[in-house]
Design a protein that fits this description.
Blueprint lengths: L4 H4 L8 H11 L3 H49 L11 H21 L1
Helix pairs in contact: 3-4
Length: about 110
């Protein structure tokens, strides 16, 4: 009994990845070729997963570093003019650096 491919794979859209993958697998004539193909697919998916994990770790590190720097700059703004040594930082410069840090944190939210 022959049924349609989209119906067999749960009604996936005709040009979806699942349908295309099913068509490719169905075109193999031997179990060996099918197994080799699946090995390549799994290897690619694992490689992509590792790449994603590395990218997330990089964003997390950048977030932590930027967050700490921004906290330090905000604290410097709070302490500005309370008799502590200013170390050559003007209030405008500190404010600009804090604003830059906040903008970077906002951009990192959308990259993660």
């Amino acid at each position: 009994m022959m049924t349609s491919l989209p119906r067999e794979i749960g009604g996936a859209p005709p040009y979806s990845f699942v349908v295309r993958l099913s068509e490719i697998i169905g075109s193999f004539k031997t179990l060996r070729k099918m197994a080799l193909f699946w090995c390549r697919v799994v290897t690619e998916v694992v490689w992509m997963d590792d790449e994603v994990v590395q990218a997330v770790e990089k964003v997390k590190e950048e977030w932590d570093e930027t967050y700490a720097q921004t906290q330090t700059r905000v604290k410097s703004i709070e302490e500005y003019g309370k008799g502590t040594e200013e170390e050559g930082n003007s209030l405008q410069r500190l404010n600009g650096l804090a604003q830059d840090g906040l903008a970077l944190l906002r951009s990192l939210q959308f990259r993660a």
